[in-house]
Amino acid sequence: MNLSTTPQTFIAAVQRRYASSPPVALPPPDTPPPPPSMPKKKGPPARFARLNTSTTPNSTTTALDNARWELIGSKQVDLSKLRDISVQGEVLQSAGTAGEIRSVCPRVQNLNLRGTGVVDFSLFAAIASELPELQFLDASENMNLGISLAKMPSSAFQHLSVLVLNSTKMLWEYVCEMVPYLPVVREIHLESNDYTSLPTSPLPSNSLRLLNLTENGLSSWGDLLPGLQGFPALDTLVLSQNPVRSVTGCECLSLIIPHLTSLSLLHVPFPQEHGCPWTLHSLSSAIPSLKSLRISYEPFFGLPMPSSTGKMPPEDDVAPPSDAPAGSFYGSSTVNITHRMTVIAQIPSLISLNGSVIRATERREAEYYTASAAQNQKGNGSSASQGGGSMATVTVTLRGNNPQQSLTVALPLLTKVSQVKALMVAKLGCPVEGRHRLVAGVLSETDPASLVVEVILKEDLEDLLWYQVRSGMVITVEGGERA
Fold first, then answer.
1. 3-state class of 468 per DSSP?
2. What residues contact residue 339 under an 8 Å CB cut-off, 6+ apart?
3. Domain 79-373 class?
4. Among 214, 289, 327, 444, which one has the highest count of C-beta atoms within 10 angstroms of its own C-beta?
5. DSSP bridge partners of 463
6. Where do the structural domains in the chain lie, given as residue ranges?
7. In angstroms, rounded to a whole number, what is the distance separating the alpha carbons of residues 342 and 270?
């Protein structure tokens, strides 16, 4: 449908979008009608019941058939039953006469008024005041949106739970002034509004749970924290794509918003001031109740940021293959896996990272991996300040059927059992076939030639980390059927 550029009332835009019927091309008079659509359990709709007449063509049945085709081709929307209405892009001028909206579409719960050319939020309030069931309002893309409090009906948003004001450039002070008119609001979305600081809100809201500040100009916690003081019940904060340069200053978060459990820092360019572990530990200390975190790994681990940051990155790929046992750790990138492990180990309270639930086995692997990495770095005399940036390894001895065939090698903890087998075949010429299996253990103190087996490496898709192989262990081939 072509959008109207002529200013109009809200009901005129709704009727134009939903109730108008385009011209219907009727079939030739002698065209038989299509069979009626019959519901499985119910009979035909009442409006079609009278049309079920003889199929013999005559003037009466042809007229009825044509009327039926016209009825099917038109919209015939009952506005009084609509729950969701969108007039996005229609230019709105007024809410119409008093009572008009309530008489036409009183049951609306979700309303989309994006890009309707409105410059005063009080017009949206006038519309909402006649929609007693309204719960969701999207007023995005109405540029330079202001507010006239004198025109705001006090009962406009009694049931509104979600308010979206993305790309409106509405001043933060105006948002705070609206708070008393939003008694049960749970989410406010303020993306791309060019905020560089959030002054203190004089009128607090005890109902707000989620505040979305994606893609603004907030560069420090000092610019952010004053505005958050007015929302003590906040549990979800979205700061993605803001130029926050440090975690310094976030120590007061738990005092200002003590119930914060979810934080999004996607594409936030944290520099490597003190190293990744310090940064993550500071977040964990500042938000002891943190359960869900979304971050981009690049700034935390000193990697170059992606060239395009306009889209949300995909969720972490940690789902195991269909033929792998439950609890095994997989991912699309070994580097991403090591980064994920580091974050999980540094923030013990997390239960979700980048949209993927952290399983108990995954946490145990992450803690073991991080401890191994720190031990290796300490043994190598290198600093652990950048923890997680290098691959943790274990030094093991590969031994074939003949004890004289042995090779001591440092392997990444994420080396698969299948890769260990291939290495033994290539370096030791040791056959590892279906009837063989790998075992890992330590040499006996009484008999150095014998091996005290601690674990059987029986799954090719698992890695050394999964089996908790330690440095100093011996991996050898054992005959017999695969377990």
1. coil
2. 297, 300, 301, 388
3. alpha beta
4. 214
5. 416
6. 26-73, 79-373, 393-478
7. 16
- Beta strands 110-112; 136-138: pairing state: parallel
> By the 8 A CB rule, do 239 and 213 touch?
yes
**Residue 228: its H or E element:** helix 221-228
Secondary structure percentages of the chain, helix, strand, coil, to 5: 30, 15, 55
Nearest to residue 457, comparing CAs of 426, 428, 424?
424
What tens digit of pLDDT does each residue of 148-192 get? Answer: 988 888 889 999 999 999 999 999 999 999 999 999 999 999 999
pLDDT tens digits, one per residue of 197-250: 999 887 889 999 999 999 999 998 888 999 999 999 999 999 999 998 777 778
Here the tokens at position 237 are 């904060």
Which tokens belong to 153? 């009906």
Sign of the torsion formed by the C-alpha atoms of 142, 148, 153 and 155: positive
pTM score, whole prediction: 0.69
Rounded CA-CA distance 287/294 in Å is: 14
Q: Which residue, chain included where needed, has tokens 């049945």? A: 61
In degrees rounded to 5, what are phi and psi of residue 334?
Answer: -60, -40
Neighbour tally for 415: CB within 10 Å = 20
- C-alpha–C-alpha distance, residues 397 and 471, integer Å: 9
Tokens of 187: 């989410």
Share of the chain above pLDDT 70, in %: 72
Cα–Cα dist 7/389, whole Å: 58
pLDDT band at 364 (very low <50, low <70, confident <90, very high): confident
- Taking the CA of residue 53 as centre, how many other CA atoms within 13 Å lie in the half-sphere pointing to its CB? 14
Note the CATH number of domain 393-478.
3.10.20.90
- Reading the block at residue 316, the tokens are 């972490």
Encoding tokens for residue 404?
């004289």
Token reading at 54: 């003889």
Task: Say if 79-373 and 393-478 have the same CATH topology.
Answer: no
Q: Which amino acid is at 316?
A: D
* Total number of residues shown for the chain: 483
Report the phi/psi class of residue 409: left, alpha or beta, with left for phi > 0 and alpha for psi in -120 to 50: beta
CA–CA distance from 200 to each of 23, 171, 187, 230, 242 (Å)?
56, 13, 19, 7, 19
The larger pLDDT score, comparing residue 392 to residue 144, is at 144
